[in-house]
Amino acid sequence: MFLQVYIYYLLYYNKCRNTATGNPLIKEKMDVDNEVSRLKLLKSNFDSKKYSLEDRILYSYPQQIKRQEEMIECTVKDIEIRNENTKAEFEIKINGQIFDEREKAGVYVFALLNGMKDDETKIIGQFNGLEVLFKKGFFSSDKELVIKGNKSYSIKISDSSHGNMVKLDNLLKGLEKQVENADIKIDEINRNLRQAEEEFKKPFAYEEKLKNLLRRQLELNSELDMDKEDDLVIDEEVEVKVDEENKIGEITV
Questions:
Q1: 168-213: per-residue pLDDT in tens?
Q2: Choosing a second label site near 13 at 20 to 30 A (CA), which of 33, 155, 159, 198?
Q3: Which residues contact 38 (CB under 8 A, 6 or more apart)?
Q4: DSSP E strands: which ranges in 64-213?
Q5: Taking a C-beta distance cutoff of 8 angstroms, is the pair 75, 151 a contact?
Q6: pTM score, two decimals?
């Protein structure tokens, strides 16, 4: 019995050794398979990046541009309202009372603050033709004055009564700067959009090489499948030799 097993494994070992060393297709297939795997990974990353570019080109960038254009449109309208209602000197209406001194107006705002609940927003007056709202959050530091027209603009409230009114005044005076910044942002988005479109047009750099390797991979698989028939013949030869040994063993016994 030991002799039978020894002969079987000896023949099988010779078959495997001859297959690995005597058939150059085996090595070529290993090289081709490795390169195909590498290029498929690169292609997968390329496709993923292309889907991301497509999403930015079709949706993200156009939506960003639209938001900036709407913001400009609303801010320009508020600038017109501001200009039509701006007084020569500071003047703000709070709870129906008109204040022409920043300090007194700021103190009155603080008085209103004490009577408000957490997470409450309340209209408290008008400034240069636009609504003024007070917004109080859950935390003590979360307090804002909001100017509302076609768009909303806000400042954080500090402990300075006078300073809060100065910041409110500067907020409205800075609306033109907001329009300018939005225009700059649109130019930047359009530049990014053009770059994305150019990048999207680029093909996968190794497309042709991958096609050729896939074609060769199929050819090698087909050729090596034919070699498997030869392997079956070897296996049959092994079985025959083992059977012969069995018979010899039986006769000897």
A1: 999 999 999 999 999 999 999 999 999 999 999 999 999 999 999 9
A2: 33
A3: none
A4: 92-94, 97-99, 120-127, 130-136, 143-148, 152-156
A5: yes
A6: 0.70
